[in-house]
Predict the structure.
Amino acid sequence: MIKKKVTKILLPLDGSRNSSRGLEMAISVARQFEATITGVYSINVPPHSEFRGVGSVNESLNKEVKKIMENAKLLSAQNGIVFKEKLMRGDIGYNIIKLAHSKKEKFNLIVMGSRGRGSLKQMFFGSVSNYVLHASKIPVLIVK
């Protein structure tokens, strides 16, 4: 008998094709375990950005994030899955791990795409997925 049950899934989203595949896999797993999904979008904001204060950049990014989250919430709802959303700013990998290890949230699984929209630093895994895979204390499911 399986003692551990997946009840809360953390799903980093960025609008990439692999991120969409991760959403589909997270929904599939959530249906099997009757789990909830928390979609997280982390905006990488350098401490001294030239774009700080430029309203049009923030506005278009906020619209894009809202669209990504709405699509994920709709697809989840169509499959009978509760979807919560979270927006974070700062280092993406660090934010994902910090949220995943939060005692308040108690996530059982991270599901994420192998490569996102960020710059390609490694051949097979993106730098964020590689960081999360090695830094996480909970299971990570990488979707290609």
About this structure: The radius of gyration is 15 Å.
